[in-house]
């Protein structure tokens, strides 16, 4: 038996605490406030109180303190000291034996029913503490509640997954000769340089056509379809902005030029692929490849 | 060419040199001059890689080299290796300088590691078509070629692995090699982890700290010096059609290294020898697949036949074409190809730890996948 369980047994053995009196008798102003707060416009609560309001009558108020013999208070202290410092209510089952009438003076008694733990929960390791309260008018039990809280040690927040921020990914250097390409990817176009003079298609591009010497290159927009000409599965070392292993494919586009890009899939030479555009940020959209079903 | 390599020097090859790159460079150059029997005051030319952090003037200051009349750098990473000797040889031939030292020194393992993603390199516009897509390491860039090569010629990971096994076998008996006494089996290769499929860890060369220096002077001057000269029979650079650095993916054929084909043509033409005359091949081996492609580009075997050529045992020390007797960069150290030139010189001198018998000609190549260079060294 753990220390917590021993303490729980001791507190449970005390049985019911001394009756705690409600601050006021059942009264219409409080009923009306409660109905308003809950948003209940049932017209019937003029002589009797809504049953679900039973706990309200014996609430301790803003600056109220638990009595020393309150079993829930005692158990909370034990768990606080053991490091289970946070609390969340998990269940509240109430049973009403009859309506409460205006003017009736309530009292409440509470006993500790059960403490189980330690349990691993999503919130952290903790103990479920169950109490049983009974509301009385004189010596008549008018309502009962089984109330369960989880008293837990907040789990240390897991370290955020060390995702390499996009800013760390290697960005392409861009100049006058290549900016048309990156402007294209931003617009979802895969552009291939085409000579304004002789029509030569060329990738990577350059400012002067090696065939005819023209210096005013244009471009065509590729269909974005091609086949894997070769590929690499990169394992080591780490590459900024990438999760290893990853595949880089050299794709021969249907238009006839080759282009590198990351490939999402099981690669093989000759496999048909199509382009995908991934927006890194406003400035940069990267082209990459994915498998393409033959039609 | 009217030029010879008359001195070689190196630091220890380690994973953490514990000294600055400039110190490594200065130590290597000093060792090479001592090997040659020359004084710093004899040196009037220095050549290095664009990538080297040690300025020619800084090296000259440390060595006490008073005046320089020739200083030059070569681009494209490891592709520069043999081209530094070409620069030196041309300087000597033209009279631009009389004694030129080529050097390369870095803390490539304990300092800036090339095997990591070079985010700074992404600023290069050529790299805007690869790095942002996630292709940012030399291994991955070579793997793209390797996959296509496998697809077209049916080569397998084991075919690549045989290169690593040979290099490590040779390194195992080279006390200067990092992997001295540590040979591997093909099973070791096959069970090593993926780096960038289809490349495994053991397809990738090691990373090293160290420095190497090579002293070049005229044939005439070489006659009076301490060592038997290794004559520069031919030295060429090569860049191919639609050339990129590591990512020449837009050519018709991805199974070739046309820039090495350019080097090969130049070497055979200028040296007057052919593939059959090569006694030792020191082939750049940062990644195993490109050793196979080089064998084809250089004419040692036909297209797609390198896997069979390798499997035949041709690359063993007693084979038809002994490969990297020092252990290469996979086995000895990764010194951007400069340690391979030093091995070529030792094979000509007859002083290598894994000496091949009767060596007349040694072929040395530089970095692959980049604009590159090559050397034919010879006795006469
Ligand atoms: Zn044109």
Automatic annotation (TrEMBL), chain A:
ChsH2 rubredoxin-like zinc ribbon domain ranges (all copies): 182-216
Annotated Pfam families: FAS1_DH_region, OB_ChsH2_C, zf-ChsH2
Top-level taxon of the source organism: Bacteria
GO MF: DNA binding
Limits of the ChsH2 C-terminal OB-fold domain: 223-277
Protein's UniProt keywords contain DNA-binding: yes
InterPro entries xrefs: ChsH2_C, ChsH2_Znr, FAS1-like_DH_region, HotDog_dom_sf, NA-bd_OB-fold, Thioester_dehydratase-like
Keywords: DNA-binding
Domain FAS1-like dehydratase: 26-145
Listed name of the protein: DNA-binding protein
Organism: Lentzea pudingi
Taxonomic classification: Bacteria, Bacillati, Actinomycetota, Actinomycetes, Pseudonocardiales
TrEMBL record, chain B:
One Pfam family here: Thiolase_N
Thiolase N-terminal domain: residues covered: 5-219
InterPro entries: Thiolase, Thiolase-like, Thiolase_C_2, Thiolase_N
Listed CDD domains: SCP-x_thiolase (cd00829)
Signal peptide region: none
Coiled-coil intervals, chain numbering: none
SUPFAM superfamilies assigned: Thiolase-like
Domain Thiolase C-terminal: 250-371
Entry-linked PANTHER family: ACETYL-COA C-ACETYLTRANSFERASE, NON-SPECIFIC LIPID-TRANSFER PROTEIN-LIKE 2
NCBIfam families for the chain: PRK07855.1
Name this protein carries in UniProt: Lipid-transfer protein
